[in-house]
């Protein structure tokens, strides 16, 4: 009987690539897809989905999902894709335990990781806080043979198996270049981010400031943490405008764009240029009002789909990740293509 492993060896590709081609899951380069399909036909390969599902159910695969998603609409699309695949993989016996958090409480995230471990998870998909205690918890999971995927944010110092998400430094650099193009005059810029405990948020800030060093007339008005909460973002921007009447631009690194835009609207400051992330409905609403000029899209559906696919491949098919990081491209969206 011909196996996926044999086809992979003959084609010079990974087992994961062969599995995705034969099962129609995930993107594969056309030339590789053609090679795999031709080899499978030549060897008269016939999959046995019923037998595969039965074998998978005997493994009792259990996945824990822990995201900082409460009150953050970006994760709506991430979770939609994850739930869709989780339902599809239910026939293979895959069970998913869903957990979510609001804010950036280290004690709470540690406790929820422990709770998931007590429920016998074989894999963990986590949006982690960047803190030594979280790194320790992730490492404990890996040492206990739990497969760990970091999603949307990373902790590079941990033993996690792979990361799925955006290139944060590039996102910051892209936002800076975009701001300079839209607002070529002197810039007096304030920055909002969810938490400095998030590696990605700090990396975006660093990328932004690094690029802005080349601007001949850039003035940094400071950075404020919002806990990814629109009400806090609203108050922070109102205070920004009081403390810095010269402020003429805002960069919102994570969630909170709607609150920030409402503060700008309430202050009647039509001269302020805003660059944000994610094309959620409230951002599009503020684009239509002319308050937000551009957003950077980070492919939430693909993030959720890729993370769940990697875990399924590992737990059910025994396929290791093909790389350490699965990076989603940062795409610039303006009003005219925001809903595309």
Give a structural overview:
With 340 residues, the chain is of the alpha/beta class. The chain folds into three domains: 4-47, 434 Repressor (Amino-terminal Domain) (Orthogonal Bundle); 59-165 and 300-326, Rossmann fold, CATH 3.40.50.2300; 168-297, Rossmann fold (3-Layer(aba) Sandwich). The protein is 47% helix and 18% strand. The protein has helices at 4-11, 15-23, 30-42, 49-59, 74-88, 106-118, 132-143, 168-182, 199-212, 230-243, 257-266, 281-288, 300-317; strands at residues 62-67, 95-100, 123-126, 147-151, 162-166, 187-193, 218-225, 249-252, 273-277, 294-297, 325-328, 331-333. The strands form two sheets. It has a six-stranded parallel sheet with strand order 2-1-3-4-5-11, sandwiched between helices. A six-stranded mixed sheet has the order 7-6-8-9-10-12, with helices on both faces. Helix 5 links the parallel strand 1 (62-67) and strand 2. Helix 1 packs across helix 3, helix 8 (168-182) packs across helix 9 (199-212) and helix 10 crosses helix 11. The protein is globular. It starts with a helix and ends in a 7-residue tail after the last strand. The mean pLDDT is 91. Residues 2-56 form the HTH lacI-type domain. InterPro entries: HTH_LacI, Lambda_DNA-bd_dom_sf, Peripla_BP_I, SBP_2_dom. GO terms for molecular function: DNA-binding transcription factor activity; transcription cis-regulatory region binding. This is D-ribose-binding periplasmic protein. Keywords: DNA-binding, Transcription, Transcription regulation.
